[in-house]
Amino acid sequence: xxxxxxxxxxxxxxxxxxxxxxxxxxxxxxxxxxxxxxxxxxxxxxxxxxxxxxxxxxxxxxxxxxxxxxxxxxxxxxxxxxxxxxxxxxxxxxxxxxxxxxxxxxxxxxxxxxxxxxxxxxxxxxxxxxxxxxxxxxxxxxxxxxxxxxxxxxxxxxxxxxxxxxxxxxxxxxxxxxxxxxxxxxxxxxx
Length: 191
Fold this sequence. Notes:
Elements: H1 3-11, E1 15-16, E2 21-22, E3 25-26, E4 31-32, E5 37-38, E6 43-44, E7 49-50, E8 55-56, E9 61-62, E10 67-68, E11 73-74, E12 78-80, E13 85-86, E14 91-92, E15 109-111, E16 116-117, E17 122-123, E18 128-129, E19 134-135, E20 140-141, E21 149-152, E22 157-161, E23 174-176, E24 182-184
């Protein structure tokens, strides 16, 4: 290892496994594990955990305190906001009509603050997953997901509502989660 590279590694304020390839911007306190690749032009926020065999493409934006489990790729055009969770081997797409040799028309996908996506879920491009929403394992998400919605299935559909803490909320118009938070359902938010 050259002296210049050694000095650069000593200055970084995030952890990068010796088998990780980090070319992009990574915030302080983040951890990048073995065989992960953060491309030049990708942005990873503070205090994130990027698991083994993850790929963060140029143009992808990861907020603070995001957990990305093993085997997940985040492509250009995908933004993951603060405090989100991406389960192992979940899949993003970023082109509706992919063809080699044709101009790319990437669609923006947004994962809002605090949202959780389960293992093996597939998120089609151009979709927004709402704040604190939960996408179940193996779901195929083909349309936007409302804030606090619980969705699963193929295609994914709303099966309930979830609290900020992640617990499923009881049915009703005015409910209290087991954690003590209170919620009132508003028709304008229901999708």
